[in-house]
Amino acid sequence: xxxxxxxxxxxxxxxxxxxxLLLLPLMIGRDATPANELRYLxxxxxALRDGHFWCFFLDGAVYADKPPLYLWIVMLMRRIFGFHCLxxxxxxxxxxxxxxxxxxxxxxxxxxxxxFRITAELSLMTAAWxxxxxxxxxxxxxxxxxxxLALETAWIIVRGDxxxxxxxxxxxxxxxxxxxxxxxxxxxxxxGTLVWLALSGRFREAGKLxxxxxxxxxAVPCLIWWGCAWAEGGQAYMDNLLVHQTVDRAVNAFHHKRxxxxxxxxxxxAMAPAALIxxxxxxxxxxxxxxxxxxxxFLLIVSGAFFVLMSFVSSKLEIYMLPIFGPVIYGSFxxxxxxxxxxxxxxxxxNLRRIAFWAACAIFAAVFIAGCFFTETxxxxxx
Length: 383
Fold this sequence. Notes:
The chain is mostly helical. The protein has helices spanning 2-10, 12-29, 37-50, 68-81, 86-108, 114-125, 128-135, 140-158, 164-181, 184-199, 206-209, 212-244, 247-251, 262-270, 274-287, 294-311, 322-340, 346-373, 375-382, and strands at 57-58, 61-62.
């Protein structure tokens, strides 16, 4: 039993393969959702038909809402297969989800004992909006992967590896995050790391992260992108891309306008069921004055800074919080592990960890059964 357990724990790809098998029936059996997925497929078809590569349109109207990267993937798969193969396109959400799990595990899961480490991974994978984004055609999971890589690289740099290669990589990950979803791909690492450095009394070290190499690696590809978009779509398209889709969304949203406190309640169901254990655990840990190591503080401070910042942005959707689900869950399980080693908290903390583990297993079982026997019901719900 111990040998099997060790193999399963030491090789994360075995776990990801199991997750894939459990999700596969639903991925194969479900239909494209009309609200988002069919829209992206139609945009890709229109771009291929009209020969657009940098600028996108939906039924002839400008669609500058999203950067090109994910739409390029949809267009490429359309060219390769000759039709939109939904299970293949879903892999471009699912594989980034697995890679996000891998990055979090290798960089921020090492301090966790294996029961807490595995439970953190399962809790993230089965969090409502994370699981949904892993199998639905959206660019949010792709952005989450690049942001997670950017945070990992930022952590490596502030720990002492200030090599030029790391700084170039940091800027490249930031560009890929922006090129996947837009300016939010820059806001999380920029605001989060600066707040963490300030609270840690290390603000003078901001130049290590935000030096000229980072900005060049971010700015040069952006300028190429904007230059090509301007050449193809003209000034009107650029105004839509750089002003309407950024400033207007942030200040007085024309789309998805929500109140300031929207994320205070939406995160409970967007990150459920993990939120029902993780968020109270953070409050419990603060009440018990649990001491966290620098790595865990980094995760939680960066997440908190992003949460506050996005609350002040006018346009809000639950999925905009997706990039901080991993840091919050791994940080909260670090707190839960510390509580399990604290006198008077041991039994409760251990029981909460077990509840989280079995809840995640139950969700995977339910998704597998739904994919095998209730795909029509699932399609009706998605429609």
